[in-house]
Write a structure and sequence with these properties.
The protein has six helices and 36 strands. The protein is mostly beta strands and about 575 residues long. The strands form eleven sheets. It has a four-stranded antiparallel β-sheet with strand order 13-36-35-34, with no helix packed on it. The chain has a four-stranded antiparallel β-sheet with strand order 14-15-16-17, with no helix packed on it.
Length: about 575
């Protein structure tokens, strides 16, 4: 709760001629400045109360001041929710008045007023309530020379020392400084201390701001593997071309029918059919708005299809990240909601539906909910938070029953059934790990880690034409001079909370290298080979690797094109 206070300075005739507006929040202190400059061509921004001989005005000051009039300008530094102490520094030609204007929550204040008369300056301060008081008066001896009386000089020194004591700087009582020199010195001292105080205030304010995430420490098991052997750098991923540039934005996952048609969903909530070089719109998962695809804020309205597969009846099964599981007729575009995200499972709604797979033997749909807290548009917060909030689930389209196979997963993403459907592989994106979950046999219902400490963060996993598994890495994790970003901040929840407070989500894109990488694995998690695009000339941030009729279709979450490899052998 903000408490506003006013330090009202009264002139000798009782006119209100200056004020400091200070913000106090609870018991925290905030430092700011009330700087009044009477120097030619100096611009002072802020709310002002001008008191000049014969005229007065109140407004926002943005004009140069003149030598002959007194103008009080307020420049307040209020950082976040902190409170304000202000130094009142008055600079006038040939004279100086330096005072400390202090506002506590009990309204203790020092009031100060300076006015001019025939190019001479009289400084008066009066106390009200619990205010400190000082009175100075100067008389003009000539048009170009000001002579200060001993009493006024001593009073100004007291005020000057009071300001110096607040800054911690030492001022010799007998220093022989001119008015302008003393003003400059006082301004410099206060300015240096003020910068430090402002920085401290910002840090304190940010510390007390609530963080949007509740992170847990996570330590990767070791440094990333060396790029050697089957991981050796190559350019195999560059031997392709881009299709539908500017038409497909973020084709994330793929499936295909017997006629050779390929289906995918994009960032704007649309489902598409691809036939060779022809692109056909099937339907919109949500509302058809012009803004769809322009910003992630529209995704909860427009929808975002992630996992896409065909069932035995030729219907598209779509996992929309926001709406739920759908059955879509690929010819007419008619949608049927199978499972609403609001319904969820075991009383927990789905927040981020992601990977999808369908058993050809039973028709059971396997899918992942990457987080029970974060939606897809906040995926970066989910990754930074590194909390085990994801689940692996099943849906029986015949009975409508939903089951939870695994919970407590770190952003579970893509899944792929083995050729005999005895197990499935599952990617835990935020920790760079691949699990094997047994569906049949003596280990049925158990999980095991088959690949850890990966050279990147896995997205979707797909079964290739030759029975191997292809894994797209959405972001690489390589050894460099510094550890990878998530490795670096993983053990420190306080650092994660701080970053989530102050760093906009879009800024993290600058940390993402333009490096394309696909891994080929066997069922035991052994790396058989890799495809690299070291410069991102074809693609990067690979989300899916779909092998169909000799082609590789490479997915992404937001790139505005579809990369295709004609030959990846």
């Amino acid at each position: 709760m903000l408490v506003w206070g006013y330090n009202i300075n009264l002139c000798p005739d009782g006119i209100w001629c200056g004020g400091i507006t200070s913000t106090c929040v609870l018991v925290m202190l905030v430092w700011g400045y009330n700087i009044n400059l009477c120097v030619l061509a100096v611009l002072v921004w802020g709310y002002i109360i001008n008191l000049c001989p014969g005229r007065a005005g109140v407004g926002v000051y943005h004009q140069p001041v003149s030598w002959s009039c007194w103008c009080g300008g307020i420049t307040s530094t209020c950082v976040l929710v902190m409170l304000v102490w202000g130094y009142n520094i008055n600079l006038c030609p040939g004279c100086v008045g330096v005072g400390s204007s202090v506002l506590w929550m009990n309204s203790l204040s020092l009031s100060q007023h300076t006015h001019t008369h025939s190019r001479s300056l009289s400084a008066h301060t009066h106390t009200h309530s619990r205010s400190l008081s000082a009175h100075t008066h100067t008389q003009s001896l000539s048009a170009d020379t000001l002579s200060l009386s001993l009493g006024a000089h001593q009073n100004r020194q007291q005020l000057f020392f009071m300001a110096a004591s607040l800054t911690g700087d030492r001022i010799q009582p007998d220093c022989d400084l001119t008015g302008r020199a003393r003003a400059a010195e006082g301004f410099t001292m206060l300015g240096k201390r003020g910068i430090l105080v402002v920085l401290i205030s910002v840090a304190v304010g940010v510390y007390f701001l609530p963080s949007p995430i509740n992170p847990q420490p996570y330590i990767f098991q070791g440094p990333p593997p060396l790029l050697e052997g089957p991981l050796a750098v190559n350019t195999r991923l560059q031997n392709g071309r881009r299709l539908f540039t500017g038409q497909l934005h973020g084709p994330e996952s793929f499936t295909a029918d017997q006629e050779g048609n390929v289906y995918t969903g994009t960032l704007d909530g649309k489902l598409w059919r691809i036939n060779q070089e022809t692109l056909t719109l099937i339907t919109h998962m949500g509302q058809d708005l012009q803004e769809c695809g322009s910003r992630t804020d529209y995704e909860p309205v427009c929808g975002r299809p992630h996992g896409v597969r065909l069932d035995s009846g030729g219907q598209l099964i779509v996992a929309d990240s926001y709406f739920g599981l759908f059955s879509v007729d690929p010819q007419t575009g008619h949608k049927t909601l199978l499972l609403d995200s609001k319904t969820g499972a075991d009383g927990v709604p789905f927040a981020f539906l992601n990977g999808l797979e369908i058993s050809s033997q039973t028709g059971i749909i396997y899918f992942t909910d990457s987080s029970s807290r974060w939606g897809r548009r906040h995926v970066k917060l989910e990754v930074i938070e590194t909390n085990a909030l994801g689940r692996l689930l099943t849906f029986d389209p015949v009975s409508g029953r939903v089951g939870v196979l695994l919970d407590g997963l770190y952003m579970p993403n893509g899944i792929a059934l083995s050729p005999d459907e005895s197990f499935l592989l599952l990617a835990e994106t935020s920790i760079g790990c691949i699990l094997r979950y047994w569906l049949q046999g003596p280990k049925a219902g158990t999980k095991e880690v088959i690949m850890n400490n990966m050279p990147g963060y896995p997205d979707n996993i797909r079964l290739s034409d030759r029975g191997t598994f292809l894994v797209g890495l959405t972001t690489t994790r390589f050894r460099k001079l510094m550890p990878p970003f998530l490795d670096l901040i993983g053990p420190y929840p306080a650092v994660k909370r701080f970053l989530a407070k102050v760093v906009p989500l879009s800024w993290y894109n600058m940390l993402l290298p333009r490096y394309g990488l696909v891994l080929e694995l066997d069922g035991e998690g052994e790396v058989l080979g890799s495809l690299h695009d070291p410069t991102g000339s074809l693609t990067w941030a690979v989300s899916d690797v779909f092998s169909h009729q000799g082609r590789l279709y490479l997915g992404s979450t937001d790139l505005p094109f579809l990369p295709v490899l004609e030959d990846w052998s």
